[in-house]
Amino acid sequence: MRAYVSLALAGFRRYSTYRQAMVAGMATNVAFGLLRMAVLVAAVGQAPIAGYDVAATTTYVWLGQGLMAVVVLWGDKQLADRVRSGDVVVDLYRPWHLQSALFAEDVGRAGYAVLVRLAPPVAFGAVFFPFRWPGFGTAPVFVISVALAVAVSFGMRFLLNATTFWLLDNRGVQALYTALTWLFCGLAVPLAFFPDWALPIVWSTPFAAMLQAPIDIFLERGSPWPLLAAQGFWALVVLAVGHLVLARAVRKVVVQGG
Amino acid sequence: MIEVRELRREFTVTTKVGRFRRERRVVRAVDDVGFEVAAGEAVGYVGPNGAGKSTTIKMLTGILVPTSGFVRVCGVDPARRRRELARRIGVVFGQRSQLWWDLPLRDSFELLRAVYRVPKADYASRLRECVDLLDLGPFLDTPVRQLSLGQRMRGEVVASLLHGPELLVLDEPTIGLDLESKERLREFLADLNRERGTTLLLTTHDLDDIERLCPRLVVIDRGTVLADGALDELRAEVAPERVLVVDLEKPAELVGLPGVRSSRVESNGLRHHLTFSRDTTAAKVISAVAAQAEVHDLAVVEPEIDDVVRRLYARR
């Protein structure tokens, strides 16, 4: 366990070494936030849509801008690159559970992202625009929800990366994944904007658990417990499937290169 | 320490045949390999590219599952008990890094200490010793990405020793290093083997590594063991001739020397290269030469290790 805590701390430190990247990322993030806000506020300005008034919409936008870096919506390819190059041998002979080790590092990364990627856009939105803070009781629930969102996102990205063991090149899967998350996690528009018939479908994907769930908990849209339950369910499922996939991959793995 | 019998590993390779068809072919990367390494030995595992060296090493460390055959490292089956084994052996892949690229060297070491659960005191003393011997002090706090290859390799070796492994497996540890870095690393490894009794198994293309470090050599090619034995024995077996180079005071012709099979003359008869077989001794040849002419200088040349290995490959 101590090893995994150390790995999480290392994950935190690894990302904190790239300060300029962080500043650049934040600037882009705020610029896009302004754009998204302009479009959505124009839509809800006349009359609220699906319960989203102006304050709820701006809160949704800035929270989403911040959370997207914490839960990494676009997938990553760290492990995939290591599989492709064969460097994964180093990860495989360590006395650890590879998936847990990577998860620990990702938790560290997410912790750092909360400080520098979530807090600034939310503060920016709260200072300059109408913003809806939740009640005190909601705060801890929101924290748990974000943690679960990170777990689901990590599990999904791990599976995505693991496809490289078989495909060697997973750029196609990666592109598909990015398209799906963008649509179904509630980043393009709130999931509540989807037509009624589509709601049960979009809410039953793991993507909803990655972004829309914590946002809805923050906005206190209905009871948080079903959302948390769904997030917990998806976290367990994707992590368990990842574990099985890794075990299979290790049995059949062809380590690339000499 | 290592026990390998009838080890075999096959890979399926698909090649394109025509526009749509693909042909699947089974390639045996390792075919019926067997050898044993006792505790405290230092063994060189050599062979040309594609001989199956790295595949064997991956099976020894439990990363690859053998197709068939028997492997025991430190008494355990590597593929089944990979994590347990990992705590007892160290592995260095010359072409891959086990350090955290964006963290200082020291942080990578600290992380490995946690991963391998090394007691603090053991860690501190091992690190201090390694840092002194390999002179890591000046760049312990430099991020790994900024290290030179030579510095990084020293870091890699230390990283694989922090948990005090019984066996250290090195896959081309000196690849790409300059002469001085190579020499320093070899000295360190030789010391490790001698003083601490750490068993070494290393693959390399640089036969100087073997010459300096490994009294014993296992040569493989195309997945099978070609030869296994002491470097000197292998030399005697495949390269039975040595050369005596004599410089004479005055040009002369040397005739009727015992055991000399061929000779070559340079510098108008001043320098003679005399090739003689191992059933005679250098001393006999020298005294025979001295009886015929006044000797200014002489040297006995052993066949180059490259030569020995080349002949082993050719013998197939």
From TrEMBL, chain A:
The entry's keywords: Membrane, Transmembrane, Transmembrane helix
Pfam families according to UniProt: ABC2_membrane_6
Transmembrane segments: 21-43, 49-74, 114-133, 139-160, 172-194, 228-246
Protein origin, superkingdom: Bacteria
Name listed for the protein in its UniProt record: ABC-2 type transport system permease protein
UniProtKB/TrEMBL annotation, chain B:
Example GO molecular function: ATP binding
Top-level taxon in the UniProt lineage: Bacteria
GO CC annotation terms, alphabetical: plasma membrane
Keyword GTP-binding in annotation: no
Compartment annotation: Cell membrane
Keyword set, alphabetical order: Antibiotic resistance, ATP-binding, Nucleotide-binding, Transport
InterPro entries, A to Z: AAA+_ATPase (IPR003593), ABC_transporter-like_ATP-bd (IPR003439), ABC_transporter_ATP-binding (IPR050763), DrrA1/2-like_C (IPR025302), P-loop_NTPase (IPR027417)
Pfam families linked: ABC_tran, DrrA1-3_C
Domain ABC transporter: 2-247
A GO BP entry: response to antibiotic
Keyword Phosphoprotein part of the UniProt annotation: no
Topology of this chain in the membrane: Peripheral membrane protein
Gene3D superfamilies: P-loop containing nucleotide triphosphate hydrolases
Name of the protein described by the UniProt record: ABC-2 type transport system ATP-binding protein
